[in-house]
Hints:
The complex is a heterodimer of chains A (about 250) and B (about 850). Chain A is an alpha/beta fold. Chain A has a single domain (about 10-245), classed as P-loop containing nucleotide triphosphate hydrolases (Rossmann fold). In chain A, about 35% of the residues lie in helices and about 25% in strands. Chain A has 8 helices and 10 strands. In chain A, strand 9 and strand 10 (about 225-230) form a beta hairpin. Chain A starts with 8 loop residues before the first strand and ends with a helix. With about 850 residues, chain B is α+β, with helices and mostly antiparallel strands. In chain B, strands 1, 2, 3, 4, 5, 6, 7, 8, 9, 10 and 11 form an 11-stranded mixed beta sheet that branches. In chain B, helix 2 (about 15-50) packs antiparallel against helix 11, helix 13 (about 420-455) packs across helix 16 (about 475-515) and helix 21 (about 685-730) packs across helix 23 (about 745-780). The longest helix of chain B has about 50 residues, at about 230-280. The radius of gyration of chain B is 34 Å and the shape is globular. The interface of A and B includes residues 84, 98, 104, 121 and 147 of A. Chain A: It comes from Microbispora triticiradicis. Chain A: GO terms for molecular function: ATP binding. Chain A: Pfam families: ABC_tran. Chain A: This is ABC transporter ATP-binding protein.
Amino acid sequence: MSTTTQTRTAVVARGLTKVYGAGDAAVHALRGVDVDFAAEAFTAIMGPSGSGKSTLMHCLAGLDTVTDGRVGIGDAELTRLNDKQLTLLRRERVGFIFQAFNLLPTLTAEQNIRLPLEIAGRQADQALFDRVIETVGLRDRLGHRPSELSGGQQQRVAVARALISKPQVIFADEPTGNLDSRSGAEVLAFLRRSVRELGQTIVMVTHDPVAAAYADRVIFLRDGLLVSELERPTPQTVLDALMALEA
Amino acid sequence: MLRTTLAGLLAHRLRLLLTSLAIVLGVGFIAGTFVLTDTIDAGFSQSFAADADKVDVVVTPADAEDDGTLPERALAAVRAVRGVRDAQPVLSGDAPLIGRDGKVVGDYPTAGVSIPASRMKITSGRAASAAGEAVLDENTAEAQGYAPGATVAVLDKAGDRHEFRLVGTFDVGLDPDLAYRGAVAFTPETARLVTGAKGFTEIDVLSSGPAPETLRTAVAAAVGSGAKVVTGRERGDELARRNHVDTAFLRTGLLLFAAVALLVAALVIYNTFGILVAQRTREMALLRCIGATRRQVFGSIVLESAVVGLLSSVLGLLTGLGLGAAAVAVLRATGTDVPTGTVSLSPQTIAIGLCTGVVVTVAAALLPARQATRVPPVAALGTQTEEHTFRTGVVRVVFATLFTVAGAGLTAAGVLQNPGQVALLTVMAGGVLVFFAVLVLGPVIVRPLSGLAGWVPARLFGVPGRLAVGNSRRNPRRAATTTVALTVGVTLMTFMSVLTATVRSTVSDQLDRQFPADYILTAQTGGIPRSIADTLRASRDLSAVTEFRGKKAKVNGHDYEVGTVTRAALGTSVKPEASAGTLDGLGAGDVAVADFVAQDLGVKVGDHVTVMSGGRSVPLTVVAVLKAGVSLLPPFTMAEQAFEQRFGRVDDAQILLNAAPGVPAERARAVVDDATAAYPAVKVGSTTEIRGQFDEAIDTVLMVVTGLLALAIVISLLGIANTLSLSVHERTRESALLRALGLTRPQLRGMLSVEALVLGLVGAIVGVVLGVLYGWAATATLTKDVSFRLPVTQILVFIAASGLAGVLAAVLPARRAARASVVGALAAS
């Protein structure tokens, strides 16, 4: 199952199990997943509805507790951390992009982007800030509030917010789910550029083969288990793999 | 539709709990007031009825109000009536009791009475049956440490001391006069000797057989027109009715505070329903989608409020029963002489409580219900609830301006008027209008104010602090209503504290200015013998002995006291302030008049008044009109020598004196005490004591009012808690996002606490500003020269306490927000 790579590993999961509920009502969302995510790479997680891909992401990001197994981000063992330590880990090492943008309505675009740094009490590296703003093309929108931005612009603010703190890994949950195809393509292009140019590590959950094709590697989940994976995907190869999964 | 509404209510039981608490407390206050006063009323009625049953017929003077009495022969006449088994007189007068310190007891002379044995409630020992025996009321006996067997001394009419053997103690019952002054009871003959009473205040008749009504007619015929004759039962009813007026006064006072509490509750409910409607936009839209009319949506909200109002009113009635019972228990436990009946909810209380609760709740929900009808059906398809944007509308500006201008105008008019009740009422009316202006302007001013109140927290608490301040300004309408509820309570508290502080310092200043004296001598009965002033003046340890004298006389045909003051003291130890003319060189034919008397008689400086004394009329010229204030000077002040010539050698009414410079207070006091030791009726007071008593009285008023306002504050805190928990509910996703971005649980809790702190501070700031402003305006209408005092410490405490209370109100909502799972909250949309 494990892949031999020459590059460093950013995130690692071993025997990851997640059970919701107990007894007869127990739902096994993950049934022992072993997976590595390479640093400075763009990885997509795919699978049919209910395959456990969102749960996997939540557990990898330290948003949800795991039932069994272990998760590591860099040298940190997530499964050994308490809530406070997990929060600090998210603050320092993890970035998020959500389907529903999730910007704070009271803050301007720039304030939203700087929020993670402010929470961590860190100063923004102005050069990085400028570069991120250039990358996502938001220079003239920085003073606007979310309600004054289009969906695509809001998601670009969210991408910038994830990039600004230079996290060890960014988790993106269906980042293009709420966008039209053009805005979606733009956002995905930014994500890929941030991997290429900024050396960012990105793990993205999606059910869209076209979105997955932007990644360096796609892993496929079914019924809580890792079933296959694909290097250097194209929309067609992803679609084929998905068909094979359904079969 | 009905079923949908009720199902919705059931599903959101918890959500409505906080809302209903506001109404429960408000209605509870009202019901509690009625329960308490009803219980006291019932207690009085029962006691009066029990008293009345002991006597068949009561004879009282026809003009009881005018201190009239029944003559001796009335008793003989009554006794001669057929069917009278026994007739006993009631006598009443002054019999100053001498306490253990050798001075007369209390501020007013103890009453000397004789009460028929049938009506006297002996609590220990027995009633007086011989000339040398006396019975003391139990409260005075306890306070002075006298028990049956002891020897007590009282002063008779002439001021001579008489000793009696105490044979028992008694309960004065419901007579407020005897309860206040204390009473010594004797046999009728002794009472007459001691008090010098010329007649009877009452004759109690017992029947040997005839019905009370029959006997009443016979007795009435016997005593003639100078007396009023009623049966015992009628007398009891009359006393109960008179007492009912007192409880009605207490009831009105308490209901005023209940009204404030209900106003605050209405604001809280208005806000809660407003938020609930906003949050249920999709639900409303869905109802409209599937065919509900606007009227039905409106009706469903109104119905919901009616159900909430009804349920909470019922709970409020029970709370009121509890509150009333608690108040009654406190009354009993503290041993006050207020009789109490059985605690119960009368049908009237139930009706009033339910109506008030339901009407207030429904009325407060009307505007939000109208808002709900404006939700378009298409909103059901939208995914996100719109963030409320607030724009200052023209209507709001117009109304705010109108209210502000009218309110400020009235206030200014009141302040500029001559001090008096009219001025005060004008200012208060202006205050109400300005409050409306604040209510209307709330959403406009809450933004800058929360910026101001949040300035420090935003810098102190980092990101959570800044986010919190942002959140507090985010929905100005909601924030304004939430804080205004708190403003009501804080305004009234600040108002009271400014008022009391100013009255305190004004009175103290006037005392200092007009009577720079250390000690004041007064006589409880009669006058202070002139020899005392002579003795005091001879002492080297004392200085500035000032005598005040006075005598009743007819001035321009009206009864007034005409008096004088030690000549040398004028301008030195007594500095009366003249509003016209001057006291300098007050000559033999001159007189100074107090301002209120000058107004009554319509005289001014230069006019002549005629004083009748001893059958001779004396013309005097008015040379000064004096500000009365706390002046000890009589309405008409003459020169000392001229007064002596006209009225003779009159005893002193009061003596003011100072310790000589460098003399320790204890030594001066000892000299004064020595000089007055032989005169039990002459009491020595120090200005510090007087001031202390005054301060105590003011503190008590402030404490009671603060306690009664506390409920309004508690309700407004419920409002803050309610608004916050609903906001937390609205912002579940946002909180989850912040947690995902690395905000720790304590930081999230801190964020909500800071938001509550800012809301509390904003409410307090507005309240303090209004309270100080109107406290100042109100004091300006009291008297001409007010020494305005800002109780800075108290006000700072109010502000700090409001902020703290806000934080307290945020504890539960914050816990709930922090406990929510990040993943769950993010998933829920």
